[in-house]
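Journal club side-thread
Mid-discussion, someone asked how the predicted structure for our own chain would compare to the paper's figures. Pasting it here so we can look after the session.
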Amino acid sequence: MGSRGIASYNQHDRKPPTKKSMPTRFVQGFRELLSEALDSTDPASGVKLGKCIGAYAFYDYDGEPIYVGQTTEDFATRIGRHLRGQRSDTLAYRILDPFEVAEMELYPVEHLRSVPKSERRAEVDALEYSAYVHAIKNSKYKAILNEKIPPVSPLIELPPSYKFNLVPDDMREDREHPDVRIARR
């Protein structure tokens, strides 16, 4: 018998699971920690970090940088595309595996919103490039997985950054074990 394109839940009288109940406990915890991080306030601007512009870095379970990016929209939108499974070039090119992201660092520069767009782009490019160079310099392997080098710009002094753990504490030991990480890949 052909498929009618309707999901089967083994009983016709059962309702499909709610969307909120579907992610695993790990994914729920990850999303909760991500939301808490983005709901934090940037002391310099008084704006929630999720609504700020700037540069960001993702780190793996070993604290190694795996990606540095920038946004002139806001952190919540851009990072959401990377980590919540929405469309992202880094995901499409298989550069970034969201399940390898254990920490996130944000470099907010909300004050640049008032700068004309042409100047803002150059300043955010310099911020991203400086965060990229900083991440590589502090990496044990002196490498990063970005699919391309950010626009080469003059190095600037990085603004204060905010680093957040995105892995629930009670799951970190299991998730960071090399056997689990290799199997997940």
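Post-session note: The chain has six helices and four strands.
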